[in-house]
Amino acid sequence: MSHPMANFDEKEIFFDESYVAKLGLIVTESAQELGKKINKHLIRWATDAGMDYDSFIVESECPRFSSGDGKGIIKSTVRGDDLFFLVDTGNYSCTYKMFGVQNHMSPDDHFQDLKRLIQAASGKAHRITVIMPILYGSRQHRRSYRESLDCAFALQELQNMGVSNVITFDAHDPRVQNAVPLMGFDNVIPSYQVLKTLLRSASDLQIDRGHFMVVSPDEGAMQRNMYYASVLGVDLGMFYKRRDYSRIINGRNPIVAHEYLGDSVEGKDIFIADDIISSGESMLDIAYELKKRKARRIFAYSTYAIFTNGVDAFDKAYRDGIISGVLGTNLTYRTDALRQREWFYEVDVSKYIAYFIAAINQEMSISKILDPLEKIKDLLARR
């Protein structure tokens, strides 16, 4: 069987220096770990093609004045370069001092630093692509009352600054791209990388209708879970959230109950996929409900496992046999406490991003990268 990315051979990515413009990777403070991994892949491919590159990363920084004002600095020429800006708007571990007080950077701060660095390029780049795994403001994706539309406005800002492409992962609502119909927008789902990690972490999984099932945690996550169920050839169930629309708590109508729709889960291993585990309460409620229905093992996945309330509740659920594993990507900041947990499995997406960077730089089609169906089939066939 031919490789699904046969027209995207690693050894030919930088062949003959046939790129459109010299590649430059500008990594904000928030994404240093991921940026270094991406850079290693790019260097290896260039070296395999007989080219001499020490690094594709262009040195930059966003220092702060003591008053809190900041500025973006790019430390070498980028004139005519094909620039890729990498930012993690969810990395709250980054700090700066303001009037002597240590402040943790918010998504607003990270987005502002991104704009500062784009400004620092002074319009001299050949093309600008922004890689923003957590799309800034994406949880405020629609207007229900007199509300701001942060994500749509932010995308328009980037377009007005000369950004040609935005690459994001598992956007809360990808329809937000309608705000910028003339700008490139790729919403990427790392489904192959997720399944690869899941099957390595639980090698005894039997992927068939009698032993395995996919369950959507709510109606909003149906599309991604439907994809997993379809490519794996298993049944799909779902929960819907019954809410109290008479009250608003923390900006949202509180959930009264999780109601299940679907076939029996008794004796089956369950896989649940969502875009984000925030507090984790909803995911745990669903896990406990599935256990009441005699599900065997439960594996949860979220592209962004941020655990805003800590991991203690998941520790207890793991000890009690409710949750067997949680998968999360390295697309955003993970605490050391989370990464050390026995039940947490990290999904590395750095190579996938490197593919995108190389393909865009070479003006190659990314359709093969976006559709990993053949790779998933090959993965399942090798088990």
Write the topology of this structure:
Blueprint lengths: L22 E5 L4 H17 L11 E2 L11 E2 L7 E5 L8 E4 L2 E4 L2 H14 L6 E5 L18 H11 L4 E5 L14 E5 L2 H11 L10 E5 L5 H11 L2 E9 L11 E7 L7 E9 L3 H12 L5 E8 L6 H8 L5 E5 L6 H4 L4 E4 L2 H12 L5 H4 L2 H9 L2
Parallel strand pairs: 1-4, 4-7, 7-8, 8-9, 10-11, 10-13, 13-14, 14-15, 15-16
Antiparallel strand pairs: 2-3, 5-6, 11-12
Helix pairs in contact: 1-9, 4-11
In short:
This protein is of the alpha/beta class and 383 residues long.
Structure report:
It is built from 11 helices and 16 strands. With about 375 residues, it is α/β, with parallel strands linked by helices. It has 2 domains: about 5-190 and about 350-370, Rossmann fold; about 190-350, Rossmann fold. The strands form 4 sheets. The chain has a 7-stranded mixed β-sheet with strand order 12-11-10-13-14-15-16, with helices on both faces. The protein has a 5-stranded parallel β-sheet with strand order 1-4-7-8-9, sandwiched between helices. Helix 1 packs across helix 9 and helix 4 packs parallel to helix 11 (about 375-380). Mean pLDDT is about 90; it is low at about 1-5.
The number of distinct helices, counting runs of at least 4 residues, comes to 11
Task: Please mark out the parts with pLDDT under 50 across 5 or more consecutive residues, or reply none.
Answer: 1-7
Specify the helix fraction band: 25-40%
Strand content: 15-25%
Q: What composes the largest sheet? A: 7 strands, mixed
Q: Any idea how many domains?
A: 2
Structural class: alpha/beta
Descriptive key words:
383 residues, Rossmann fold, five-stranded parallel beta sheet, 2 domains, alpha/beta
